[in-house]
Design goal:
By secondary structure, the chain is an alpha/beta fold. It has 14 helices and 11 strands. The strands form 3 sheets. A 7-stranded mixed sheet has the order 1-2-9-6-5-3-4, with helices on both faces. A two-stranded antiparallel ribbon has the order 7-8. The chain is globular, with a radius of gyration of 20 Å. The structure holds glycine. The site of glycine has 4 residues, from loops.
Length: about 375
């Protein structure tokens, strides 16, 4: 008999809905009993992609079989292309052909693409069925698996079609990081640093002291890093599920980063976590030029990213144009009439929402940043 597992965190929303986040090494092997706790021996449908299926599916399937939970598996093509209307339609059609009922649980086994698509499908299949997130990349473990935003991309932009649909549980197995490509591991680290920079100066110092443990993938260090990072995200989501206010803090570095990503046309030169690393440095540098935070804090952020070989200068990626980057920033978020809002630090661990940022001041900042070899 498997020992009952205590959740590392619990996300409780203002209306009382809540869900556990389990974090441990080799957790996939005991995921069956965790799922049985939620829904007994009812059938589940796993949605995954071809890459993750090779690395992680056998352990999940074995654990479900052991717990006597019947399951089906749908396997998507890996990559951002699967977050589309076409793949959503195909997935829903396949799900319907399995004759689900409103208690049929979906399990998202994979990175952010699988989690976002599965969550959205779960929110509209039969007007809503339960789902569980089993994120297998560091980025999805510390970011997209928690919070309830689900969605797909369209020609008009990323994540413009979607829903809020919270999972029933999040199961994080740090063992799934053992075979993750180093670039993707570093990309996840960027979101962890971002979380510390938003709200927890002690955690930021802990990250500076535990870089070796991260780079050598020590399970205890990874588990603590993920737990502390998710605690910050969960605290914010619990207070503002639908981003009416403080949830915007989680966008630190994202408006700068999205502009760089959009300029690279998502062609692989800059993946999301790398854009977040550059964007977080830029947000600190911009805040320092406005006198909001100390230049020393910006340097600490830059050094941390340098130590794990994340990009810290835009020139490492491409030759960018300041005016085009400002245009992207004016259209970063859902309808915003060209208004730029930035999350800017006062110090490491303390950030604020700044609406009405002047496009002219940003243009000057980008021009300086892009020509100063030392900084960008
Ligand atoms: N699903 C990601 C979020 O809600 O932030």
């Amino acid at each position: 008999m498997v020992k009952p597992l205590h959740a590392a965190l619990d996300v409780t929303l203002p209306d009382g809905r809540h869900y556990p986040i389990y974090i441990a090494n080799d957790l996939l092997k005991t995921s069956g009993p965790l799922i049985a706790e939620l829904q007994g021996q009812r059938r589940v449908i796993i949605i995954t992609d071809q890459n993750v299926a090779e690395r992680c599916l056998p352990a999940l399937q074995a654990s479900l079989s052991h717990a006597e939970i019947p399951f089906h598996t749908l396997t998507l093509m890996p990559g951002e292309g699967s977050k589309s209307f076409a793949v959503l339609e195909e997935t829903l059609t396949q799900l319907l052909s399995l004759a689900p009922d409103r208690q049929t649980m979906l399990i998202a086994l994979g990175g952010g693409v699988v989690g976002d698509l599965t969550g959205f499908a779960a929110s509209i299949l039969l007007r809503g069925v339960p789902f569980v997130q089993i994120p297998t990349t560091l980025l999805s473990q510390v970011d997209s698996a928690v919070g309830g935003k689900t969605g797909i991309n369209t020609a008009h932009g990323k994540n413009l079609i979607g829903s809020f649909h919270q999972p029933q549980a999040v199961i994080i197995d740090t063992q799934s990081l053992a075979t993750l490509p180093p670039r993707e591991l570093r990309a996840g680290f960027a979101e962890i640093v971002k979380a510390a920079a938003i709200a927890d100066a002690d955690f930021f110092s802990w990250l500076e002291e535990n870089l070796d443990g991260f780079l050598t993938k020590q399970p205890a260090i990874l588990a603590e890093m993920i737990t502390r990072s998710l605690r910050i995200k969960a605290d914010i989501v619990m207070r503002d599920e639908r981003e009416g206010g403080i949830r915007a803090l989680l966008n630190l570095g994202h408006t700068f980063g999205h502009a760089l990503e959009a300029e690279c046309q998502y062609d692989g030169r800059l993946i999301h976590g790398e854009a977040v690393a550059l964007g977080t440095i830029l947000a600190f540098d911009y805040a320092a030029t406005l006198g909001l935070c100390r230049a020393d804090d910006a340097q600490r952020v830059r050094r941390l990213f340098q130590h794990v070989s994340l990009p810290t200068q835009c020139s490492q990626i491409a030759a960018f144009n300041a005016a085009k980057l400002v245009q992207h920033m004016q259209h970063d978020k859902k309808p915003n009439q060209g208004e730029i809002t930035l999350i800017l630090p006062r110090s490491i661990g303390q950030c604020e929402i700044h609406p009405h940022i002047s496009a002219d001041s940003l243009q000057r900042f980008w021009e300086d940043a892009l020509t100063s070899k030392a900084a960008h």
